[in-house]
């Protein structure tokens, strides 16, 4: 495992230990759950682990966390962080640093974490359901000015929330009350259906029966509970065992370290005279400029690749034109081992250009021989892809001209 995987796995086992000790039911959730059932390992591009709990179990977990007081761990929610984005909480390792620049406003404790999502019951009251939904939408809209401009139809939702967020004190008082309200509305023991939702995402609807009996599976050698298979079918389809998991690669937009406490990092920024929002804005502006410059470099590189492909075409034409009849005879007579060996130099340059997104053809007939060899090796899809990449003009005969254009 990578250091990030080890950190997330440790946090998962800590959550599991608290739940087992106090009889709290929970489930691995979404991509974390799918990784467990697919291949029992955490993906290398995993940046956060996720679990799912009902409202009563989440409240019990919060209470037990206070009793346990795990060292260098914190629990972030609307109860203690008015700037937290979700109805739920995060179990955070405070000795680590994870600052995801595009999404930093979702949370306020910038360490690696297990996100505890809420398995919400469908409310008994339709009116109260609509009211808390409007509040949630309004609250989410306060995080991004751009979203406000694009979402005029949600103006009423925003009016329900924004006046309550004028000061840090009033904001925390409001989110605490909203948390308690959501806990009441989304705890309905008589409901047959439930759903989960994260910050500014669509709802995922489920049957409560899928969560009656946890199914045990293994992740990195440790046993964890997951929901019934219908849960995975509803999220990823019947072919969920072959579903490709999304991930987050380490880029310049992610500041991460498994050994640096995020508070120390924030302190260094503050001592440099940069408030966090300004620091993030400056960094994003710098990254954008870098990427704008990189796009120009990429264009220049592409033209160089085209130029080198022209050289490859001419070199291969000189090499193979004299033996074209022999190559076609090998293909016609089925001597594919000999044909493959003879075309080895062509294959090398063909694949070099393929990796650059370019097709390489100097003679349509010899290209046909090469693609025939590739198909007979069991790579028909690759052969078709290479053929699609060939420009139409490269299927015309090469004409060699002298200095006098003859």
Protein architecture, described:
The protein is an alpha+beta fold and 406 residues long. The protein is 50% helix and 13% strand. The protein is built from 15 helices and eleven strands. The protein has helices spanning 3-22, 30-39, 55-68, 126-141, 145-150, 155-161, 168-185, 229-236, 262-271, 276-320, 324-332, 336-342, 344-355, 364-376, 380-388, and strands at 27-28, 49-54, 73-77, 88-93, 97-100, 113-121, 193-196, 204-207, 215-219, 222-226, 254-257. The strands form three sheets. Strands 1, 2, 3, 4, 6, 7 and 8 form a seven-stranded mixed beta sheet that branches. The mean pLDDT is 86.
Radius of gyration: 29 Å
Uncertain runs with pLDDT below 50, 5 residues or more? Answer: none
Q: Report the CATH C-level class of the largest domain.
A: Alpha Beta
Number of strands: 11
Shape: elongated
Structural class: alpha+beta
CATH architecture classification name of the largest domain: 2-Layer Sandwich
Within the CATH hierarchy, at the fold level, what is the topology of the largest domain?
A: Beta Polymerase, domain 2
Total of helices: 15
């Amino acid at each position: 495992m990578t250091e990030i995987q080890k950190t997330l796995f440790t946090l998962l086992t800590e959550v599991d230990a608290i739940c087992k000790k106090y009889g709290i039911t929970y489930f691995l959730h979404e991509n974390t759950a799918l990784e467990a059932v697919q291949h029992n390992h955490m993906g290398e591009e995993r940046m956060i682990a996720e679990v799912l709990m009902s409202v009563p179990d989440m409240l019990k977990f919060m209470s037990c966390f206070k009793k346990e007081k795990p060292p260098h761990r914190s629990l972030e929610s609307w109860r203690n962080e008015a700037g937290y984005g979700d109805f739920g909480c995060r179990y955070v390792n405070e000795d680590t640093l994870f600052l995801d620049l595009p999404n930093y406003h979702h949370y306020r404790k910038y360490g690696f974490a297990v996100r505890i999502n809420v398995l919400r019951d469908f409310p008994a009251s339709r009116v109260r359901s609509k009211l808390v939904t409007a509040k949630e939408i309004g609250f989410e809209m306060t995080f991004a000015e751009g979203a406000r401009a694009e979402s005029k139809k949600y103006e009423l939702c925003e009016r329900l929330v924004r006046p309550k967020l004028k000061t840090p004190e009033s904001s925390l008082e409001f989110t605490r009350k909203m948390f308690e309200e959501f806990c009441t509305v989304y705890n309905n023991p008589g409901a047959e259906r439930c759903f989960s939702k994260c910050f500014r995402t669509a709802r995922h609807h489920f049957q409560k029966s899928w969560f009656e009996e946890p199914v045990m599976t293994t992740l990195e050698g440790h046993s964890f509970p997951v929901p019934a298979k219908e849960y995975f079918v509803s999220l990823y389809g019947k072919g969920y065992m072959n579903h490709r998991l999304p991930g987050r690669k380490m880029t310049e937009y992610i500041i991460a370290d498994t050994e640096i406490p995020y508070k120390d990092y924030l302190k260094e920024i503050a001592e440099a005279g940069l408030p966090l929002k300004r620091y993030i804005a400056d960094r994003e502006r710098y990254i954008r400029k870098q990427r704008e410059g990189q796009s120009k470099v990429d264009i220049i590189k592409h033209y160089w690749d085209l130029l080198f492909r022209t050289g490859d075409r001419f070199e291969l034409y000189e090499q193979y034109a004299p033996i074209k009849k022999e190559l076609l005879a090998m293909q016609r007579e089925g001597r594919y081992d000999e044909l493959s060996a003879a075309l080895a130099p062509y294959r090398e340059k063909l694949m070099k250009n393929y990796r650059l997104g370019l097709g390489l053809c100097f003679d349509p007939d010899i290209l046909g021989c090469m693609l025939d060899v590739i198909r007979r090796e069991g790579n028909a899809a690759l052969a078709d892809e290479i053929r699609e990449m060939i420009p139409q003009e490269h299927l015309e005969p090469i004409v060699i001209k002298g200095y006098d254009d003859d």
